[in-house]
Amino acid sequence: MTLLDTHRQHLRGSGLSDETIAAAGIYSVEDPAASARILNWEGNDGPAPAIAFPVCGRDGSLVATILRPDEPVRRKDGRTPKYEWAKSTSGRLYFAPAPLVDPVKWGDPATPLVFTEGVKKALSCAQTGMPAIGASGVSMWHDTQASKGGHRRDLHPDLAGTPLKGRRAFIAFDGGDTTENPLVILEESRLCRMLLDAGADVLLLRFPFKPGGPKVGLDDFLAALPESERLAALEKLCAEALQGDPLARVRLLEKAEDKSIATLALMRDRSFLAAIHVADAAVRDLLNEALRHKAKLKRTTVENAVQGFVAELRTPPKEPTPEEIAAAEAAAEAEAERTVRLEINADGLLADPRLLDRFYADLEADGLVGERAAAETLLLVVTTRKTTRPVHAVIKAASSSGKNFTLGLVLARLPQAEVKFISDMSSRALLYMATSIKSMVLAIAEQEGAEKADYTIRTAQSEGSLTVLVAEKVADGPVTTREHTVEGPACFITTTTRAKLHDENETRLLEITLDETPEQTARINVAQALRAAHPPTADERAKAAERTGVWRCALGKLELTEVLNPHAPAHAARFPTTKIRARRDFQRVLDLAGARALLFQKQRKVLEGRVVVSDEDMTAAVKLCEALHSPIPPRLRSVLDRLRASVLAAVEFSPAEAAKILGYDPDAARRLLRDAAKLDLVEETEAARGRKPSKFKLCHPPAAPTDSPTSSDNPGRSDKSPRDPMGSALSDCPAPETPPADRADAQGPLGDGDRVPAKGHDSAGRTIGQRTTLGNDLENCPTGPAVGQQRTIGQSGAPLEEGTL
Known about the structure:
Layout: H1 5-13, H2 18-24, E1 27-29, H3 32-39, E2 50-56, E3 62-69, E4 94-95, H4 103-106, E5 113-117, H5 119-126, E6 132-135, H6 144-147, E7 168-172, H7 177-180, H8 182-197, E8 201-204, H9 218-223, H10 230-239, E9 242-243, H11 246-251, H12 259-268, H13 270-278, H14 281-295, H15 299-314, H16 322-350, H17 355-365, H18 372-383, E10 393-396, H19 403-411, E11 419-422, E12 441-444, H20 454-463, E13 466-473, E14 479-486, E15 491-496, H21 503-506, E16 510-513, H22 518-533, H23 538-556, E17 563-564, H24 568-573, H25 582-599, E18 606-607, E19 610-612, H26 615-624, H27 634-644, H28 655-662, H29 666-678, E20 682-686, E21 695-698, E22 772-774, E23 776-778
Parallel strand pairs: 5-6, 5-7, 7-8, 10-15, 10-16, 11-12, 12-15, 17-19
Antiparallel strand pairs: 1-2, 2-3, 4-6, 8-9, 13-14, 18-19, 20-21, 22-23
Helix pairs in contact: 8-13, 13-15, 16-23, 18-19, 18-25, 25-26, 28-29
């Protein structure tokens, strides 16, 4: 018997090797008459060509043959089943044959069994070494003869003689169906109940899938992995499986960090409600009593939830009308055309040198006012989500400043399957996530909402993945240790109104601030007024949605995730090293430079699969991370600049008086002043007493860092150069060092094609290649502010222009 090449490729697509295909005896049927004989059809017009799957019993004997026609046969009722059975053999279970599974294992209670749907899934599982049994459908696991007339369901007779008491049994139905399809969930619960009644230890496998995407079967899950990794991945999935016994799931509520959240999640789980529905009266009584005792749930509450699930089962599937079918086909065709159009526009966007200008223009069209540097920094941060070292960020700004609005506009342009918004999080919630967070963006609405999970989040940020060991006791067996891993890394972004977070958090987060000036408030109000007077038309909204779709497609197409940075060594030699956190900060600069290169990867050189970082990328990253080198948080710097430029510069003042200058409420101003007092930037001259408010006074600007270059060791710079209020030298930069005489060029660290003359000036009048002091040594004179804000030189100097990428 032969196998057509097209059929072999189909089987390989399900992850089956040629050895497995041969061991299973799979072949092709090309003769319609032969096909009709196999199916016991009258005449000689059977479906052909078709793949023939011999069905083996537990002892390895042939009990039936299934055909999978290339073109399914349409029934009178309109159905087109993928597989065809002979009427006399319909419903037989499939036991993977030897040598894929040693027949002895079927009778060994110590060997776990996998129950799945279909021959290919059973073979794919058996190929890894785990014995699997397949049924022709999710509803074919019971004895159909004994179940007629409303009798209690019994297991399929093909399972007779297979020991199940105390045996681990994994149910592996398709991912997606097990959470979204009520009928499949019901059949999973029925099989689970039959196995539990037989004494098995039942667990439910949950295959990862994208909501709204195609369902993921056991064969799909394994086929997506290299053959060498499949067994380990399946064992990991088995270790994370759900308890099939609903009583065991109720008992687990005792171990939950937040019992109320865990109870809510359990009562929303359809598989749990289905398990209650199929249980007999005695088991239901036990479940109701356990829920009353463990979760304080009344019987009526539980029954109402179960009836809600039953109502979904009673809703008959609506047969589409010809008009609906035509409309669906037209919609599918339009969606296909839209996908092609998005792909073309996305390629054009990624190839456009003005990509960042277009990004900001789209944000402006959606309502963003100002904040270009902040928005572009967020774009670079989320671009690192697919790398092995994502950058994490915190947006610091006052309440009502637009933190979450700005973040939401940026995240709306990412593929939404890669973004998870979090409002609140218990301390161990992240540890027990059932799905991977790798390459995702986890956006936490407010830092305060995740404080309970600070340690877990910091670990995920530093280590990438999370691993927890859990002690478990299954049925009457011994206590065992189970390892659960949440695969990462992911990119974390949060927002806060605080000027300073816990030191352990500060060192892991890139700080982004927003413009909090009255002038920015006025600009926002004008923009809101214009939008109210001239709201966008339906056509404009459709175009905005199309632009967002192009961005989602483009950012999802960034396939290369590794970079090569030839400029890193030169920057490392000049990076400030006063603080131990500089070891992490320098890597953050490199990561942002790499993110910018990845964003422009269609316009950068690529060497051996790595995108080459340009000098432009590195310079932009240094400018964005400028605030990292100052001991003063950017937001405090901005606040103190504004106070020094006000009437409060040399007098004592209350938080309420500062609030009037800053445009904050008094409580927010009080918190900021206390944060500044901890850094000796302001002095609390009088503590609050009763209704009398506390008093503060601005301290003198801090002295220059002791390790900064001085006149004695750097004659190119005067000790009397003016400084900004936070102590960074912003005036004359020293002359560049003269290159060695034996050097043939003066190109510096920028590499070929980026030659820099030894002497000369840029458009701002600075000597090219200068060195300056910004807290410590930095590469160039600063030309932009900390991310997302303006900076003022001295108390009366003109503000520097807002830095952009």
